[in-house]
Amino acid sequence: MKKDLKLHLAAIKKNAIDLISEEELTLKLQSKKSLNLKIGFDPTARDIHLGHTVLLRKLRKLQDLGHTVCLVIGDFTAKIGDPSGKSTLRPILSDKEIKSNALTYTSQAFKILDKKKTKVIYNSAWFKKMDLSKFLSLLSSYTMARILERDDFSKRMKENKPLTMLEVVYPLVQGYDSVMLEADIEFGGTDQKFNLIVGRHLQENFKQLPQVVVTMPILVGLDGKEKMSKSLNNYVGVNDSSKDMFGKIMSISDEAMWEYFRLLTDHDLEKAKAMHPKEAKLLLAVTITSFYHCQKSAEKEREEFQRVFSQKELPKDILTVKASKEIDVISIIYQNKMASSKNEARRLLNQGAISIVAETPLTIKSQYLEVPKSGLILKIGKRKFLKIKPL
Questions:
Q1: Contact status, residue 72 vs residue 178, Cβ threshold 8 Å
Q2: DSSP code of 49?
Q3: DSSP string over 242-283
Q4: Given this structure, which CATH class describes domain 2-216?
Q5: What is the pTM for the complete model shown?
Q6: pLDDT tens, 184-217?
Q7: Quick check: 39 and 70 in contact, CB under 8 A?
Q8: Fold equal for 2-216 and 319-390
Q9: Residue 378 class from Cβ within 10 Å (0-12 exposed, 13-18 middle, 19+ buried)?
Q10: What CATH number does the domain located at 319-390 have?
Q11: Which of 87, 119, 138, 172 has the smallest CB count inside 10 Å?
């Protein structure tokens, strides 16, 4: 039993930032064979990215040790919008948007989690049945002063930025999920610490043993500055194509690469650091891409990447389109999904990140371009190419 206890403790503590508290965790592990591990996602977007998988990977390891994951899809709380780390008011999503986003979450999460050891719960199941008197009772269990201890709330008030009552009650609503699930441990990013502690307090108010709180590091995005986020367009989605996934990972900085190794792989970090940075990054890209696709796809992308970027050759499968003699560069790049929006295409153009492939590459400075009879190849950013032939 001592050996098992050490194994479980080590798995939970690995890479964790906060553990509240180890003594409570030890007692839970000693008294129960299987713990209820809670993790929640508000379906405010359609995709799960590698930032989310930091938590999901840890939970999968604990499932393999016999524990059960309660995956809470916050279809109710998504209407409020988690204010954690936000300096501005979040837009309220429609029921249709929430439902559409939620449908994609479980299929993506099960690329990592063991479906047989996962309970998927929608928190609207109890909130839609809660009457006003019970909801008011829940609100009375916490003081406004305690809620406003949150750094992001106090900062917004000092800056006279809007802070709605919906946002103020969000931690209580999320915390009540823990009561309904009788969660033993709740996992979240470091920005979720306040909400997770509220869950502990509410469980005590409802005469339950308080959940243990485990927070994990927040993965930095491809820009190496902000946290990974779809809204910042600095993310790697678990549903990305093997080509996009491999290319995006190869674009991260050498400094950020080690955090990706530590949080997203099982490789020995010291051994990885002993490698040449370029080879280490290729190993990282192959490891992650092969997990979400297959080894064959990852190796193919490695060969293609080295051929194009190391040997300065063109990709084998360049997308080819036909266009009129004069093209709108911004429109054609956006229409062929070489940029996520026209604004992004315009930004790339202004930054000199679009060029014509030639013996001496020619940077495009104008939005409108004449296509020669022989056609041309555009290079967009570092990894994308588009061949254009005249009609």
A1: no
A2: B
A3: HHHHHHHHHTS-HHHHHHHHHHH--S-HHHHHTS-HHHHHHH
A4: alpha beta
A5: 0.78
A6: 999 999 999 999 999 999 999 999 999 999 999 9
A7: yes
A8: no
A9: buried
A10: 3.10.290.10
A11: 87
